[in-house]
Amino acid sequence: MRLREASPKTVFALLIFIEVLWPQQLVPSHTPGNPAEALASYAPTQPVGRPVARVNGSVLTDRDLLREMYTIFPYARQHNGSFPKAMEADIRRGALKMIEFEELVYQEALHRKMTIEPARLDKAETAFRQQFPTPEMYQMYFQTECQGQRKVLRSKIQRSLLIEDLLKAEVENKSGVSIAQAKAWFDQHPGEFRSPESYAVQTISAVPPQTATAQDLKEARKRAEDDLRQAKATKTYQEFGLLAEKISEDDYRVMMGDHRLVEAAQLPPQLLAVLPKMQPGQVSDIIQVEQVFTIVRLNQYVPAGTRKFADIRDSLRQKLQQENVERLRAGLNSRLRKGAKIEEL
Known about the structure:
It contains 11 helices and 9 strands. It has helices spanning 8-21, 62-72, 85-111, 118-130, 135-145, 150-170, 179-188, 214-233, 237-247, 269-272, 309-337, and strands at residues 51-55, 58-61, 194-195, 198-206, 258-263, 287-289, 292-302, 305-306, 342-344. The longest helix is centred in the last third of the chain and has 29 residues, at 309-337.
């Protein structure tokens, strides 16, 4: 994480602090993780500092794990700290592997005798303090997470910067993609750029029981009518999404009702009868798909066709660079794990 600017992880951590922690009494905690993410450990279910893994003897706790789980699935913040049951085990597994990786990266930076210049550390400390909405919130963090000791805070920030520097050297600096490289990839993979007709939609649904009676269907329809009045009043993706999280009964509610981009061929015929008549940003009336009563917001329509390199040059470079990042990170992870002693508790 770059401490010189507020990253998405930091912003999320501060939101957790404001919405969950500020009204409640705090308990001291210590985490070997990134200090800017430490606030996210304060959730409705408070972790207790229980060890979850040891990496070459260094202990990682359930606080570290929960912070990373929130980073992977930030929507949990809007659902009282709860994760979807079907996804929770996978989120936990991915988060555990990530905090192990970051600890290995930190240890490798120490092994290489990498250092942070005092002036840079001072600047990062100042920037970190400025990320807090008020001085009182910073002091609360300082007392609980750093035991009121500046050297603890600076150690946490130094750890973050060392991880950042090693990842920059081993991943970021090696992952760049030139325009020429992107064009060569484009020419070699023409099939990748033939796009089917697709729609990006959000939904709010009223879902009756699986074995619905006529009365169940009537009640679901009534809920959908109430939902429709609220959905029609929304003006933006965000407003519709927040409403979906609040009132929708389908599984996409935890994703702000967002189905992303879906090929037309994969959509039910009831939606395909309506979507071609809609404009982006428009909210449909109630659409019944089997026993589910659904309201759809159209976000984007993508007609079938072959995209031109000039139109997708930047996004293709970003895609290829991200693939390089993932490949390089995976390779680094494999090298660091080789010979390391990792115990998952």
